Amino acid sequence: MLICERPARRRAFIKGMSALEGTHQLSSASLDSYAGAAPAGPTAAESARQSLRHLAVVRVTHWIFALGVIGLILSGSGILISHPRFYWGETGAVGVPALIDLPLPMIIGPSVWNRPIHFFFAWFLVLGALTYVIGGLVTRHIGKDLLPAKSDLGWRPIARVIWDHLRWKRTSADEAWTYNVVQRLTYLFVLFVLFPGIVWTGLAMSFTVASVFPFLATLIGGHQSARLFHFVFASLLLIFLIVHLAMLVLVGFRSHVRAMITGRIPQKRSTL
Amino acid sequence: MSKLLTRRTLVTASVATAGTAALGVAASRYNLIPPDYGTLFGAGETLTYASQRLLSSGHSMAREFTRADISKSPVVNGPAPPDEAFRRLAADGFKDWRLQIEGLIERPMSFTLDELKNMPADSHILLHACEQGWSYIAEWTGVRLSHVLELVKARPEARYAVFMPFPNPQQTTGIIRVQWESIDMADAHHPQTLLAYGMNGGVLPADFGAPLRLRMGREMGWKNTKYLSRIIITNDMSQYRKGAGTWYGGI
């Protein structure tokens, strides 16, 4: 039942989207290419293709996030190996029993260099996220493209998406224009749980910030607990990044990277 | 699209440029620009320093702990310098040791350990954390740096305090900067900033920076110079820190 109803709902969604964005597109540049369209009016999918797959604010902040996250993971790994042990509470050191003792070499020197690099890229994440949230609310991108439909929030539609992926089922041309429910939930988790969590736990380790907002550290168990949570969030973000890149390769690296740069899906590819 | 330079972009660009310039002047006026703003990662350093100084303006106090929280085995990070001069000083209880204060001050002075111990004492139980990741809690006793700065009458144009340990830092250079450090006046005048000669109720042990070390509440471990011998008050860091690493890194 649900499965049968889905395409109709999705087409309605695309129609709504193109009504919003297609007109804007027409007024700006694409009159020439649009002149050849059938007088009866384009189908939903066709008119959607006249508009952008990714809004400008999404594209710009995506690459800011990409730079920031890669810089943070690299420099963070450098800081991690200077003491790859984790503790609960406020204190912990070599000679004190650890909660987690990662089987990594302990290399101390580079932490001096990784620290300024880490904070440099942290600003990419913080300023990118602020831009994304403001831009995402103004353009209604978050509500429209990320918040899942109520009917999609059962385990059956979620299981269907996962099952389709496990069977390597190709997404249809229409589906390439929107996010499925698993994507939506994942992006919401990354943007509104992982990012704030990483910033919170990072700031909790700052002596100056904790002097102004002590609760940042005390609410989560203390300085070492903050460090542990920071590591857990960063690990989840790394897992997301690996899956994100793996999916990108599976669905078509070039076309999707191009779409995230130009905002457009190449005509030939998307109709395949 | 053909008109690259419209009136609108021109106005926007000039407003943005003027705004950035005004912001820079204001930030400089309120001492929000760190001395290493021009380095490779200086933009991040400047944002971090400026935002933290705006946040913590008004002497926000670092978290204090109880005696029960004090760590049983605090971390020795770099044992006492195996320097002949240091050993000779330590052998007779640092009787011949002096703390020299110089630079932008009205009265250049030097103090013996006893003179410092006769000044009003203050104690704080603080978390000590290294950027590497380890941390411990200890109680530190000493004289507030702000008290000493009043005695030597630091000039109003002073912006930084540079802390020199012995032996001569010129002889011991390496990739890890444990030799000397510098802080701004916001940290120097902070009530939790001590010139500490005592630790956990006893005398400051040699491995933790005897006879005197800097101990701050709002900075990471590496800023808290051990084995102090000289403090220089200045408003120009260009002769001290060049290139590598970060000056503030206080997040």
* Rg on CA atoms of chain A, Å: 22 Å
**Residue share in helices of chain A?**
55-70%
Strand content of chain A: under 5%
Second-tier CATH architecture of the largest domain in chain B: Alpha-Beta Complex
Strands of chain B, count: 10
Number of helices of chain A: 13
Tell me about the biggest sheet of chain B?
5 strands, mixed
Q: List segments of chain B where confidence is low: pLDDT < 50 over at least 5 consecutive residues.
A: 169-178
Strand composition percent of chain B: 15-25%
Radius of gyration of chain B, whole Å: 21 Å
Poorly predicted parts of chain A: 1-42
Q: Find the structural class of chain A using helix and strand composition.
A: mainly alpha
Write the layout of secondary structure elements.
The complex is a heterodimer of chains A (272) and B (251).
Chain A (H helix, E strand, L loop, with lengths): L1 H27 L2 H4 L9 H7 L5 H25 L4 E2 L13 E2 L9 H28 L2 H6 L8 H12 L14 H24 L2 H6 L2 H4 L4 H29 L1 H10 L4 H5 L1
Chain B lengths: L6 H23 L12 H14 L28 H8 L7 E5 L5 E3 L1 H5 L3 E9 L5 E10 H7 L8 E6 L15 E4 H4 L5 E6 L2 E2 L9 E3 L12 E7 L17
Parallel strand pairs in B: 1-10
Antiparallel strand pairs in B: 1-2, 3-4, 4-7, 5-6, 5-10, 7-8, 7-9
How does this model look, in words?
The complex is a heterodimer of chains A (272) and B (251). The two termini of chain A are 27 Å apart. Chain A has 13 helices and two strands, in the order H-H-H-H-E-E-H-H-H-H-H-H-H-H-H. In chain A, strands 1-2 form a two-stranded antiparallel sheet. Chain A has helices at residues 2-28, 31-34, 44-50, 56-80, 111-138, 141-146, 155-166, 181-204, 207-212, 215-218, 223-251, 253-262, 267-271, and strands at 85-86, 100-101. Chain A is mainly α. Chain A has two domains: 1-24 and 42-51, no CATH class; 56-90 and 100-271, Transmembrane di-heme cytochromes, Chain C (Fumarate Reductase Cytochrome B subunit), CATH 1.20.950. The longest helix of chain A has 29 residues, at 223-251. With 251 residues, chain B is α+β, with helices and mostly antiparallel strands. Chain B folds into two domains: 8-55, no CATH class; 63-234, Sulfite Oxidase, Chain A, domain 2 (Alpha-Beta Complex), CATH 3.90.420.10. Chain B has helices spanning 7-29, 42-55, 84-91, 113-117, 145-151, 185-188; strands spanning 99-103, 109-111, 121-129, 135-144, 160-165, 181-184, 194-199, 202-203, 213-215, 228-234. A five-stranded mixed beta sheet of chain B has the order 2-1-10-5-6. In chain B, strands 3, 4, 7, 8 and 9 form a five-stranded antiparallel beta sheet that branches. The radius of gyration of chain B is 21 Å and the shape is elongated. Chains A and B meet through helix 5, helix 9 and helix 11 of A and helix 2 and strand 4 of B.
